[in-house]
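Weekly puzzle thread! Below is a chain. First person to post its structure in token form gets bragging rights.
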Amino acid sequence: MKMNKTKELLLGALVVVCLVMTFVTRRSVDNQEVFFTEVEARVVSADSERLKLGKSRVNHYIVIVEYQDREYELENVHALYPYQKGMIVKVYLSGGRLYANREGVETSTPAAKAYFVFLIGTFVLGMVWLCFLPVLFRKKEEQSGADRP
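Winning reply:
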């Protein structure tokens, strides 16, 4: 793999910028005020479907609840057993959407989404940069070996 010194430095700088922004956005996520209302809704239906992600399969839970004569798909559901048809459940209303738990409300904010983007970006760019570090050191050794008589 060929990379010139400018690209290597630019990639390293991008890793540092993403890492700093990860910490900045995490702090803003921790300090943000999330506005929601705890309400009660009636479960209309609860079902799951198996999604294939690569070689593995995961369950995606679909829970429909009724709140104020309107049906909503409940977001951030982790299991079906608490959501039996006809039950009244405690849910969280925020931004016109219903969430199964407070964490769902907190992770749906723009600050939380930015945090996850920078976190993944730091990881991916960091791995790419680490792959090129041995190439950098090898080039330096070749240059220092060429300087010797």
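Puzzle host: Confirmed. Bonus trivia for everyone else. The longest strand covers residues 37-53.
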